[in-house]
Amino acid sequence: LVNSMADGDVSASKKARVFFGNTEDQDKQRINDISLSKQQEGGPHSEISPAIAAGIKAGNINISDGATFDLSLASEARQQELLAEFERRKKARAIAVPTDDAEIKARLRQLGQPICLFGEGPADRRERLRQLLSEQATEELKWPKEEERRVDEKEPEEIWYHESTQALRQVRFWIAEYSLPRARDRLKAARIARARPDPERASATQDLHQGLRMFSNYCSQVGDDRPISVCQFSPNSKVLATASWSGLCKLWSVPDCEPIRVLRGHDGNVGGVAFHPQATLSLDARASCLASGANDGTVHLWSLERYGRY
């Protein structure tokens, strides 16, 4: 029994040990022990098998002298680069980039960057602006807002008055007396129409459509190559005046719609034409019977007897 217990203790001591974690320190210690044993015994590689010794002598097997290379410096630099890139992307997502392409180009011009690259679309241009803004410093990012704030904080323009002439006062009084009553009547009619019930509105619309069905096309004529802007009948209803975007005013006979005269003189689009209230009635045909106005601010007066304008 004693012998068996002794044998059990020896076998237990010889059991292999399992190491958890890094065994680098143990390997270094083992190599140092081998080096010390070689130095004490005087024979190189005496504790190593002949094949391993031959490999070491040929230079195919390198045994470290215990020197180590710290990888933390290289990994730390790479880690810092990755953190900086993540921070830049986070900042880019938080930046408010305008969606208007014209405003994006203006902001790129402020940053000194080309407003358009070859093959770049609006979405790519917006993303490039976001990337540029994310690389700017915080102070530079705040600059447009502070600039807008300074623009908003400008002193309001001072309103000043001066004494007008008597003629100007009379004209303004006449305009007020002419326009204010008409504006009052127009607003009153609009309120009454708005207050009308829906069935009454629908009935009025149906009556209007029924009245329009009674009209028929008596004659038709092409007035101009460009759109007709306005037309008006003469007081005796025998002449029709038309004006178009081509700058021409034309007179047509009623009811056969035959061209009478082409009035040339405007360089821009004609937007208004009007007969004198007494034209074709009691007003002399050599007088100014017709007036026309264009978008360039010019007004021409025309006679009906001869071609020309005043």
Summarize the structure in words.
The chain contains nine helices and seven strands; from the N terminus they run H-H-H-H-H-H-H-H-H-E-E-E-E-E-E-E. The protein is of the alpha+beta class and 310 residues long. Strands 1-2-3-4 form a four-stranded antiparallel β-sheet, with no helix packed on it. Strand 2 and strand 3 form a beta hairpin. Helix 4 packs across helix 6 and helix 5 runs parallel beside helix 6.
Distance between the termini: 146 Å
Q: What sort of overall outline do the alpha carbons produce when their principal axes are compared?
A: rod-shaped
Helix content: 40-55%
Provide a count of the helices: 9
| Helix and strand pattern | HHHHHHHHHEEEEEEE
Number of strands: 7
Tell me the major beta sheet: 4 strands, antiparallel
Overall mean confidence score, pLDDT: 78
Strand content: 5-15%
Question: Could you provide a short overview of the structure?
Answer:
With 310 residues, the protein is of the alpha+beta class. The chain contains 9 helices and 7 strands, in the order αααααααααβββββββ.
Using brief descriptors, characterize the structure shown.
310 residues, four-stranded antiparallel β-sheet, alpha+beta, 9 helices
Set down the secondary structure blueprint.
Elements: H1 2-13, H2 24-41, H3 50-58, H4 72-94, H5 101-110, H6 122-135, H7 138-152, H8 166-195, H9 198-213, E1 228-233, E2 239-244, E3 248-253, E4 259-264, E5 270-275, E6 290-294, E7 299-302
Antiparallel strand pairs: 1-2, 2-3, 3-4, 5-6, 6-7
Helix pairs in contact: 4-6, 5-6
